Every structure is written in C-alpha cells, then in structure tokens.
Amino acid sequence: MANEHTTADGGTGAGRTSLSRRHRALRAALWVVTGALVLAGAGLGFVHLRLDDNISDVDIDSALGTDRPADVPNGSLDILVLGSDTRSGDNGRYGRDDGTARSDTAMIVHIAESHDRASVVSIPRDTLVHRPACERTEGGTAPAAPRAMFNKAYEIGGPVCAVKTAESLTGIRMDHYIEIDFTGFKKLIDELGGVEITTTRPIDDEDSHLTLPPGDHTLDGEQALGLVRTRKSIGNGSDLGRIDLQHKFVRALVEQVRSVGVLSEPKRFYDLVDTATSAVTTDSGLASTADLAGLGKVLKGIDSDDIQLVTLPVRYSEADPNRVEPIQRGAQRIWTALRRDEPVPDSATEGSIAP
User: Fold this and answer.
1) Reduced to 3 states, what is the DSSP secondary structure of residue 170?
2) Could you tell me the pTM of the whole model?
3) Pairing of strands 195-199, 215-219
C-alpha cells in the first residue's frame, strides 16, 4: 500500500453551490487505467491475448477525417480522458436513468516527448465553449453551438463529438481517447486493494453515499467513487470546489498503482489488467493489449511528483451565473504550453475561480 495520503479537508473550495445539480465523478479515472497499463508495459508477456476482446473502441480518426488540428510531430502525446455518468445497468443506483450519458469528468492529458512528466488539465463540465457541428448518436446532425456546456458534446455525439469539441477548444489534436464509467472505476479500485486517504473533517454526503469520520482510511471502490463524487461536504459545495481534492486523490492513486507487484504477484497483475481492459472504451489506436502496453511503457517513468495538475482557468458567466467560461488569456497560455511540449506556467491560472 502506498504511503502517500490524500487530505480531504474541504478548505480549497471556490465557486457557487448552484454550479451543477448532477453528480460529477471519475476525475482520477485516467490514472487508474493508465496505472494498470504501466504494469502491462512491464509484464505483458504472460497476459493472454484474449484480453483484446475486453476492449470497446471507437474509430474516431475515420469519423473526424482530415478536418482536425495538425498533429504536433515532437513525440509527445495528448489524450482526452472522460468519465461517463450513464445511469443504466449497474450504474442505476447513482440516479435516474434518462437514457443519456454525460461526460461529467473531462481531462486533457499531455505526456511530454521525454516521457518523464505529464500535464493534466481538468475542464469543468459546465464550461461554456464553442461546440462544432456534430453527428448525433441517434442519427442526424447537431448544428454548431457558440455557447454550449462542454459535457453536452458527449451527450449529443458520444466520443467523436467530445474529441471534436476538445480539439476546437484547444487547437490541439487528440492522439488518443480513454473513457471509463462508474462501475469500471469501482472495480479498478477494488483490484488495486483500495487507496489510502486522510480526512481532517467529517464527510457526510447523501448524494454520493459517503460517510467518513476524520482520520486515516483505506477506501474501497464504492467509497472511492463516493469520494470523487462528493461536493456538498467539501468547500462550499460546488463542482469547482472539489477539484483540488480530486487532484490529490489522483496523486495517491498513482502511488498505489505503482506499488502493485508485477513479477511477484502475477495473478494480481493479470486480474488488474483484465479489469482495466474491460472497464474502458478507447479510440481504435488503443484497442489492443499491445497498444495499451505501448502507452504503459510511455507512462512507466512518470511518478506522481512528475504530474502537473491544473484546472482550466474560468470565471462565472455574466449571462448565466450557474455556468463558467474560460479566461481566454490564461487558457491560451495552457494550450500554447502543451503545443510547445512545455510545463503550464503558473501565470496561466491567474484570476481563475477554480482551485
């Protein structure tokens, strides 16, 4: 078990409690999945090829064609990571199933050409952005919308529209796409043996179904999902206010993933990779264990201290105080840094209401 703790003190919240009514989750999903891939890169030789059949994929490249930002030819990687909040099937306990799924968690992950550091940019779900025209999941075309919530892109056109919107926002071509839902997140945490955190204040959130007294805890999958969905019991109850907590959870999670023995625990390793490949939907370029292992090898040298975690700089929308909009100057500094394969400068988040 990792020694690093996540401190849930609720003291970093900023924003308004009315920012969002829906549950948000899975900010840490990328590092659960890619952590398993680190292990896969180290020991895929004894993983049976049947695991390829576990992976769901979407051919995003074919769907989007050539009308995309130019790929930066410097060996870096940019990945859009989404957490899906569908309430169908096993996820029904987390809310009413209205037949739709939203990307209530979105992160753009930049892996440096040197493969020794990464920048993770969280995009608040209620951020107003220009959504380009997209093919609807159920058929037909949704016209472009100049001020649409970022997470609506996934609801309208699934992964393809989400990637198209992310590329429109950033001007950066997404090399890959990874998606995970509630159930997959829980299973991965359980396979890892839980994640250690320390809470300095009690958490009692009826929406996320999480009750924790102050102190040290090893969270199982259900509790971890509750933690990353909790907002009413931290800060002032807004989506923005819990991002700092979730970023700390990411760091603890990465340490836990890296603590899992591969050569010493081959059965546990296999179960973890089996769960990871069953839990994700990827682009076609990551739709095999060999492809995922290649990404795992890229990520293998990145420790938790090598991960820069930032939130897109935003301010409240004057037209709708329940929505936020990017601070363009700061946002462009972030996207420019990623295109140049440089760390995000501290000045990029000046004036932001996000942590």
Assistant:
1) helix
2) 0.80
3) antiparallel
